[in-house]
Specification:
By secondary structure, the chain is mainly alpha-helical. The protein is built from 14 helices and no strands. The radius of gyration is 20 Å and the shape is globular. The relative contact order is 0.17.
Length: about 325
């Protein structure tokens, strides 16, 4: 049993780390914009036009995008791992990334001149993928294993569609490479974050509010049913919430991997399995993780910048192997 004092300490440290990471991401870069400039801008002090322009139009929007995407993906991971009783579950396991990637490639191939279209296509593709999985799950037994297998099937189908587009129109990859690898670009603006924020902010709050339902589902389907829960309906609604969060995140961050896998596991080690604590802390740490990885992607090989998805792959790959070796029950968890 993890003590209340430990949970408090972890929460405070997580909040402080988030502030430090966000501040570092705002002041570290190829141009000489420092902490004094950030403080002056926030307090109405004296700041040069150049520094003000860099902060408002480049660094603040990029940090905000990383915060939104990280919190959404981490909370989506908490929901999926809880609902599917699968320690290896993440947004890609139910086909979110595949659906988003397919529609982004399709939009880049058919309508390459509509630069505003890829983020919308990513979100719609993620939801379409989730809708197919829900239909399959409703047509069969709405179990954890059914959802996982449906996700694998949908991923294979959309993956084949992506490969077909790349063969027919290789230029589509050039237009969508940043999205497919995962990452943020310096030209992102605050107005581009309004659409995903409308889904992410309420979605994260809703996930925290209903976190106790994940605790009840962890007791097993029969026990949850005996406590008055409609297990099938609750599972589908929570999966829909995870899909919306993940879809909104990939619309601004591309196909980032491992956030929804690493962060919930890391937080369980520190605060235990109570999702009422796990969900909000995962949102904080997920945001910190993506901001920190994006900062590393910008500075490791400066003046060159690599995609943040590459950094996450280097970090997440070994962690994924560790989880496979640790959890030998298989991808399906405890099946009905």
């Amino acid at each position: 049993m993890i003590s209340r004092s430990r949970k408090t300490v972890v929460s405070v440290v997580a909040a402080i780390t988030l502030l430090v990471a966000a501040a570092a991401a705002c002041i570290v870069g190829s141009t000489s914009v420092g902490l004094a400039d950030v403080f002056a801008l926030l307090t109405g002090g004296e700041i040069s036009n150049t520094a003000q322009n860099i902060l408002i139009n480049v660094r603040f929007p990029r940090v905000a995008a990383a915060l939104l995407a990280g919190s959404a993906l981490a909370v989506a991971g908490v929901i999926l791992q809880g609902v599917l009783d699968n320690p290896l579950a993440s947004p890609n396991i139910i086909g979110i990334n595949a659906g988003a990637g397919f529609l982004v490639l399709l939009s880049a191939s058919v309508l390459p001149h509509f630069l505003w279209l890829p983020p919308v296509a990513a979100f719609v593709g993620a939801l379409i993928s989730a809708a197919f999985i829900f239909l399959i799950a409703m047509g069969a037994k709405t179990s954890r294993l059914t959802v996982v297998l449906a996700g694998i099937a949908i991923t294979a189908i959309f993956g084949a569609g992506m490969n077909t587009i790349l063969i027919v129109d290789p230029a589509a990859y050039v237009a969508s490479s940043t999205f497919l690898v995962g990452g943020f670009h310096s030209g992102i603006r605050f107005d581009q974050l309004i659409f995903p924020a409308v889904f992410i902010l309420p979605g994260v709050l809703l996930a925290i509010f209903v976190a106790n339902k994940l605790n009840i589902m962890a007791l097993g389907d029969q026990t949850a049913h005996s406590l008055g829960m409609n297990v099938a309906r609750t599972r589908l609604l929570l999966l829909a919430l995870a899909a919306i969060l993940a879809g909104a995140a990939v619309s601004i961050a591309g196909l980032l991997s491992f956030v929804g896998l690493i962060v919930p596991h890391l937080m369980r080690f520190f605060v235990g399995h109570d999702n009422r604590i796990l969900a909000p802390l995962s949102a904080i740490v997920g945001a910190t993780f993506v901001v920190a990885c994006d900062l590393l992607a910008r500075v490791l090989f400066a003046p060159y910048e690599i995609q943040v998805g590459i950094i996450m792959a280097f970090l997440g790959g070994p962690f994924f192997i560790y989880l496979i070796l640790k959890n030998r029950r298989g991808l399906g968890g405890s099946h009905e």
